[in-house]
Design a protein that fits this description.
disordered N terminus; two-stranded antiparallel sheet
Length: 367
């Protein structure tokens, strides 16, 4: 390592820790701030992170607001349910990639800068050097995600169309916000709507009941898939989506951090995370492979797709039909859903395993 590189490392990190807590695995506040500063100084990394998190909603919503202001007759309101769903799903994909890139960079920064040996010989715990990267990275990432998602919610709520009071499902005009039981009761009370949907002549009450009883699962499935595309999500649904979005980004960062620390190569780790997000996960989530179903379910993206809230499940391109999922959500899986406990175990397992592997590699790496 050159003298210039050594001089660039803050004295609070190079100096050996003294007094109570010296060598502790719990990082000090100074160490966390130093790791945060190291990441912020990487201008290229910060530009990519901001573009992938804030850039997309600013560009899309900014253009829609501008076009509607200039020519409202040709361009509809900037906020709409379809825009909210499509933009939120895209932000989740790009946010995962940005988080993984930041995590991979955080996991390899000391090796890339050539200061790992100098940090180790101070007597500071290697585990604390690894753990400090978690709050440091998340303190950069989460505010960007919060601002981006808040922008989407505000535009949807205040610059959108009035809420619809009914939906059109296969020719039937049905009130919104009905449960399956309420929808069945409404159909039986309006047999003429069943006639419209089937394209048949008049049907008796008994025939309408028989048709509704046999076709109710498919009818309700279609009803639920249409609702999110015409209704602005309520506040509680936005909160669910925001929490899911945050979890998705946190997983991307933590797995990228562990993978980066394990391999010691930022570029390789970033490429592997991108391949996981845009190639492996969509394939395994949409196509059931014979005798490999449980293997598909071990992918964290498949578990996150099952957890995806209802407000986002209706507008995910290239995925299979929705199935009921946990916490009121609707999966966009083309494979049978896993039990809730298994879904939680997969998500927690990915976080824990990759963090443990990354910490182990940092603790055993030659200085």
């Amino acid at each position: 390592m050159t003298d210039q590189t050594a001089a660039a490392v803050p004295a609070s990190v190079i100096a050996a820790p003294r007094g109570r807590g010296a060598g502790s695995w719990i990082p000090t506040w100074d160490l966390i701030r130093t790791k945060r500063l190291e990441m912020r100084k990487r201008r290229g990394l910060m530009v990519v992170t901001v573009l992938l998190t804030l850039g997309l909603p600013v560009l899309v919503l900014g253009l829609r607001l501008l076009f509607h202001a200039v020519d409202p007759n040709s361009y509809g309101p900037a906020g709409s349910p379809s825009v909210f769903s499509a933009l939120s799903n895209a932000m989740a994909d790009f946010g995962f990639i940005a988080a993984a890139t930041l995590g991979a960079s955080a996991g390899t920064t000391d090796l890339v800068d050539g200061v790992f040996r100098h940090l180790v010989i101070t007597g500071r715990s290697r585990l604390s050097l690894f753990v400090a990267r978690i709050p440091a990275g998340l303190s950069i990432l989460l505010p960007l995600i919060a601002v981006a998602f808040a922008m989407v919610c505000l535009v949807t709520a205040y610059e959108g169309s009035p809420q619809a009071t009914s939906i059109n499902d296969n020719g039937m005009t049905i009130p919104v916000h009905l449960s399956e039981t309420q929808l069945k009761t409404w159909l039986l009370d309006h047999p003429q709507q069943v006639e419209i949907a089937l394209g048949k002549g008049p049907v008796s009450a008994a025939q309408a009941k028989s048709l509704v009883d046999h076709g109710m699962p498919a009818i309700y499935e279609g009803y639920l898939s249409i609702e999110p595309t015409i209704l602005n999500p309520p506040m509680n649904e936005m909160v669910k989506i925001g929490l899911w979005f945050t979890l998705d980004v946190v997983i991307g960062f933590l797995v990228g951090l562990g993978l980066g620390a394990l391999t010691g190569q930022r570029t390789l780790s970033t490429v592997l995370m991108i391949v996981l997000e845009i190639i492996i996960t969509p394939i395994l989530a949409s196509t059931e492979i014979p005798y490999f179903l449980n293997g598909q379910r071990l992918i964290v993206g498949v578990a996150m797709d099952q957890l995806r809230p209802a407000g986002l499940a209706g507008n995910v391109a290239g995925r299979g039909p929705g199935v009921h999922a946990a916490f009121g959500g609707r999966a966009v899986l083309g494979i049978p859903a896993m039990p809730t406990w298994a879904m939680i175990a997969v998500i927690v397992g990915w976080i824990v395993v990759w963090l443990v592997l990354g910490a182990w590699r940092m603790m055993t790496r030659d200085a």
